[in-house]
Specification:
53% helix, 18 helices, five-stranded parallel beta sheet, single chain, mainly alpha, globular
């Protein structure tokens, strides 16, 4: 690969659909991430602010059973958030959505974590037949974000429990140090229930009667309008280092690492390490490694050495994971191989919700110009009604 095709500072390259490079060969992703870093988005000396936020949270929720709610996956980020919150005496309701893809390691991590840190855990099991039918529909559809079924269920369940328990604070594991760079070309909002239902209508085989669906109006309008939740990301207020976090969690509660970012899910492991690179020509490790480079936690040389190794080092392990997937969703190996060879589709080849359509329309420079002209406020009202 020539120097023009890969960033000279991180390891993002032109396999990402949306990318550009400046005169120094630095890509748009690391340029933007460094601007955010310099603007203080990642505060490595924020212990005082961290304590202040937790104190305010506990004061606001005094007299209630819980101070906050937290999604628990068995992964490093959410586990370390629970560890930090416990240190500050925060009372947590933990929610785990079992979508049928848990690894034994992740389940053991969840159990150890909640026992050690006194997290009240609720586990929501998504109906297996509906979950696997939806996962199968997504695979057949050929859209890039194959993790939508799991992610949508997670958001829908987490917000439902928060509303039911009157919880106004949500702790999340999102963080700058390992997620400052996320490729835009293959991403799509997993909360778009219109897109999800249209894909299932076209490729599903059974009705979704109990699968947790998030009502788009509730999420995109009602919750923001009521200012119902405060979402807090503690990892952005500390010097968060994933490698050190793994060591701390292992020593403190017996946490075991599972081999890579988001690989606590058996499907996500196959999706990121095989389906994405083979069908969509995207190695998601590039974004994860580039984020660590920007955070100063990994050298570019070490990142390139990691990328030189295949995502699946053991062909037998890959074959085992493919077999596991096709048996769970009800495909033959021949069908799996054929679908992998088909041309990918875009999420926008299917129905999308009105909020997505409106946001895309308002990014059009001509529309923005017309709406900026004084005296035509009626135009915005028409757009809202149409879109």
């Amino acid at each position: 690969m020539s120097s023009a095709e890969i960033c000279s500072r991180c390891v993002m390259d032109t396999s990402e659909k949306i990318i550009d490079f400046d005169e120094n060969g630095h890509c748009c992703y690391c340029r933007e991430a460094i601007k955010r870093l310099e603007a203080g988005e990642w505060n490595r000396h924020g212990e005082a602010e961290l304590k202040a936020v937790f104190d305010r949270m506990k004061a606001e929720c005094s007299g209630r059973k819980y101070d906050c709610i937290i999604g628990i996956s068995g992964g490093v980020d959410s586990s370390y958030v629970a560890y930090i919150a416990h240190r500050y005496g925060v009372r947590m309701l933990g929610v785990h959505v079992d979508a049928g893809w848990n690894t034994p390691v992740s389940e053991n991590n969840i159990r150890k974590l909640c026992e050690k840190y006194g997290v009240d855990l609720v586990v929501e099991k998504v109906p297996l037949d509906e979950m696997m039918d939806l996962q199968r529909a997504y695979f057949i559809s050929g859209v890039p974000n194959q993790d939508v079924p799991q992610d949508h269920a997670f958001f829908a369940v987490l917000y439902r429990y928060a509303i039911e328990h009157g919880i106004t604070w949500i702790l999340e594991g999102r963080n700058f140090s390992s997620e400052s760079i996320l490729g835009r070309g293959l991403r799509f909002d997993p909360k778009d229930s219109v897109n999800l239902l249209d894909i299932h209508t076209k490729f599903g085989r059974i009705p979704l009667k109990k699968f947790p669906i998030m009502d788009e109006k509730t999420f995109y309008e009602d919750i923001p309008r009521k200012k119902q939740f405060q979402v807090f990301s503690p990892l952005d207020l500390i010097d968060y280092n994933k490698f050190e976090a793994i060591k701390i969690l292992h020593a403190d509660c017996g946490f075991e690492y599972y081999g890579g970012k988001h690989l606590e899910s058996r499907f996500t492991k196959l999706y990121q390490n095989y389906i994405l690179p083979q069908k969509f020509h995207c190695d998601k490790r590039r974004a994860h490694l580039s984020s660590l480079i920007v955070a100063g936690q990994l050298s570019r040389e070490d990142a390139l050495a990691e990328l030189a190794r295949p995502p699946y080092g053991d062909p037998a392990e890959l074959e085992m994971d493919i077999r596991y997937f096709i048996e769970k969703v009800g495909l033959t190996r021949e069908e799996f191989d054929r679908i992998m060879q088909e041309e990918p589709r875009e999420h926008t080849d299917f129905k999308v919700n009105k909020y997505y359509r409106r946001s895309k329309l308002l990014k059009n420079p001509w529309v923005r110009f017309v709406l900026s002209v004084p005296g035509i406020g009626w135009g915005k009202r028409i757009l809202k009604r149409w879109f």
